[in-house]
From TrEMBL:
Keywords, in A-Z order: ANK repeat, Membrane, Transmembrane, Transmembrane helix
Membrane topology: Peripheral membrane protein
Annotated Gene3D superfamilies: Ankyrin repeat-containing domain
Protein name: Ankyrin repeat protein
Chain positions covered by the region annotation Disordered: 266-290
């Protein structure tokens, strides 16, 4: 093809001049096979990229069958055919058109081994996926859903967090549940690495929790793809007719549900599906119990109340986007839990794979026995390299997965990684309080798993005493991090057998020695912060004490020359002045003493738990009280020297004078709450904004 014609075709495609492209084809049919971009895309690739459905349909309808097959099998630099592109973009009409013309293209792979079916699943294009699945000739061939690195469509959909599609893939391809990729990871491993998809690993504020609790997500909702709706090419009625009829049907169903609690269409669909699907007896019992205790339309009424609450929240400043975001988060948590339940139920993680009778030792010679032992050791080493899903979940803090796996497979408690760490050691090492509490409640686990030691001889108490370089706790500052670290160490220590307290690891250290050694930098940093804070606050407290002492000894209006009593003693402002000056003096002196006691502290590890935080909290409180009292005494004393006509004018000035104190109080509120909660809580609160290695 001439260079001028090639450039002309490229310009037409870039500018969207598809009529000119058809004219170029009529003059030279070979233009459709030309690769016109650096990515080696053809005109058909580009047309699909920009969603030119009419052009693609017209083009394929007006060319020969051989030419159609040739251009549909053209690959770009990534090995993608036009069907790959359509599946990736989720263009159902083009996918249906191409797959109907050449079904073999569904099994074509690009250079990464991805089929169009795979790309549709990876990008969460549900309709395109089911369209291609409907055209697939051999639906039992699971190889179409696996790429070169061993990842399946189930791996990819879970990794991309398309859990609704993943649920349907499990139903269509149950064998993919136990398929591992080249890294040895199954879909359950991938899901265990996503703690943000589970409620136990999500921290929300009070308003977020209220909205989260009030949101309703249909757990049994399952979207179905109707291939007949997309294969219809002609309509015998106006396009807006279907929209109008659908709207009227929805209004009719809404009226029936809200008045009678019954939906005839939904009931008919449910009856039809019940004949085709299997439901457990437990689910049936739950539904019968629900229907027995609640009126028929209770769910509709609850939804109306939830909607009203959302409107109320939006009116009072909580944006609709915020509410929808929390709603999507809850839906993701529920869908992820459903996928997890299906994966665990269909997985064969702990099932013995019988491949034949194993040789009996008594029938073998000494050399054969050594060979078998060597092979067994190699197998054990190889298995230890593969971390089981429950260990990943323990590291990430996914309590839902740990509880479900232990209920289904109790032997999972014996799983260890390459460092010989089980689920208990990993949970304690990675500071997962919820996982620890879950495991600590199971007496069987507590008797066995809590006694595990790793390859370095570290017990659970050693790992609790080891400080890592990330900040796991939801508190600011090194001092409060140190407080939670010591509380975590004491919490684990109380759950361990007494004979583990003085246990030595391979380095010859007890857990207490490990705690002192590894937490030395954090102790130093926390001591430095407390010292600077106490020094600054003690200077302010000393200044306030000086002013308060001077104020407390002064008498507004002077004393009576005969009796020595203040002349303004009966005035309410004088009484306020006297009390405020006394409170200012006492509280400033108290704050000064407390901050000096912090400066003279020994800063031992246990001092960070109660002693130092309590002194800091009380010191800040008394310092704030002294500053506020000084301002009150100043305003009360100044009140006497202002003329009666001007007193109403100075009230705003008094209020403005109190603004700095109010601002200081607001700034210190988070620190107050953190210190107060830290001293009250026994179990630390975990932060999940941490990168795991």
């Amino acid at each position: 093809m001439a260079e001028v014609e090639f450039e002309s075709l490229f310009n037409h495609a870039m500018r969207g001049q598809w009529r000119e492209v058809l004219e170029s084809y009529e003059q030279n049919p070979e233009v459709l096979e030309a690769k016109i971009t650096k990515a080696e895309d053809t005109v058909l690739h580009i047309a699909i990229y920009v969603s030119q459905t009419i052009f693609v349909t017209t083009l394929l309808d007006n060319i020969s069958q051989d030419m159609c097959r040739n251009i549909l099998r053209m690959q770009n630099s990534k090995g993608n055919t036009p069907l790959h592109v359509a599946a990736e973009l989720g263009n159902v009409e083009i996918c249906n058109n191409i797959a109907r013309r050449d079904p073999i293209l569904i099994s074509y792979r690009n250079f990464e081994g991805e089929t169009p079916l795979f790309l549709a699943a990876v990008h969460g294009k549900r309709d395109a996926f089911f369209c291609l699945h409907g055209h697939e000739q051999n639906k039992d061939d699971d190889s179409l859903s696996i790429k070169n690195n061993g990842d399946t469509i189930l791996h990819s959909t879970i990794s991309s967090e398309y859990f609704g599609l993943a649920l349907q893939i499990i139903g269509m391809y149950p064998k993919l549940v136990n398929v591992v990729n080249h890294e040895g990871l199954s879909p359950l491993h991938i899901l265990a690495r996503k703690p943000n998809c589970f409620r136990s690993c999500t921290r929300m504020e009070l308003i977020d929790r209220i909205i989260y609790t009030c949101s309703i997500v249909d757990e049994d909702k399952e979207e179905r793809y109707d291939i007949q709706a997309h294969t219809q090419t002609s309509h015998h009625y106006p396009l807006n007719y279907g929209t109008c009829m659908t709207f009227i049907s929805l209004l009719n169903r809404f009226f029936k549900v809200t008045t009678t609690g019954k939906d005839t269409k939904a009931a008919a669909t449910s009856d039809e599906e019940n004949h085709c699907s299997r439901k457990s007896e437990q689910e049936q019992a739950k539904k019968e119990k629900k229907n027995h205790w609640f009126p028929p339309n209770w769910e509709s009424m609850i939804r109306i109340l939830i909607l009203a609450m959302k409107v109320f929240l939006i009116i009072f400043g909580v944006g609709a986007t915020w509410v929808e975001k929390i709603q999507r988060k809850k839906e993701k948590h529920i869908r992820a839990k459903q996928v997890m339940n299906e994966l665990i139920q269909h997985a064969s993680l702990y099932k013995y794979d019988f491949t034949g009778p194993s040789p009996r030792v008594e029938e073998l010679g000494g050399g054969d026995i050594d060979k078998i032992k060597s092979n067994t050791e190699n197998e054990v080493i190889e298995k230890r390299r593969m971390v089981s899903p429950i260990l990943i979940a323990a590291k990430m803090g996914v309590t839902e997965m740990i509880e479900n796996i232990l209920d289904m497979y109790p032997v999972a408690i014996h799983d260890v990684d390459s460092q010989n760490k089980n689920v208990v050691l990993l949970a304690i090492e990675n500071r997962q309080p919820h996982v620890y509490s879950l495991l600590n409640k199971r007496s069987v686990i507590k008797e066995t798993a809590f006694r595990q030691v790793d390859i370095n001889g570290n017990s659970a108490l050693h790992l609790a005493a080891t400080y890592r370089r990330f900040k796991p706790w939801r508190v600011p500052g090194a001092a409060m991090q140190m407080q939670w670290e010591y509380k975590w160490y004491k919490l684990v220590k109380n759950s361990m057998p007494p004979n583990f307290y003085e246990r030595y690891n391979k380095d010859g250290k007890t857990a207490k020695q490990v705690f002192i050694d590894t937490h030395a930098p954090l102790t130093k940093e926390g001591s430095k912060w407390l010292t600077k804070t106490a020094e600054s606050c003690s200077v302010v407290a000393a200044l306030v004490a000086t002013v308060a002492f001077t104020t407390s000894t002064a008498i507004p209006g002077g004393p009576d020359q005969e009796s020595g009593m203040p002349l303004l003693l009966e005035k309410p402002a004088f009484k306020l002045y006297a009390v405020a000056s006394l409170v200012a003096l006492c509280s400033s002196v108290t704050a000064l003493v407390l901050f000096l006691s912090i400066l003279t502290s020994r800063f031992e590890e246990k001092d960070f738990v109660i002693d130092l935080p309590r002194k800091l909290l009380v010191g800040l409180t008394t310092l704030f009280t002294s500053i506020a009292s000084v301002l009150v005494s100043f305003c009360a004393g100044h009140f006497f020297i202002v003329e009666a006509q001007m007193r109403f004018a100075v009230y705003p000035i008094y209020a403005a004078t109190c603004l700095p104190v109010s601002f200081f109080a607001l700034v210190q509120l988070p620190l107050y709450f953190d210190l107060s909660l830290a001293m009250c809580r026994k179990v630390p609160q975990r932060s999940y904004k941490v990168f795991f290695h």
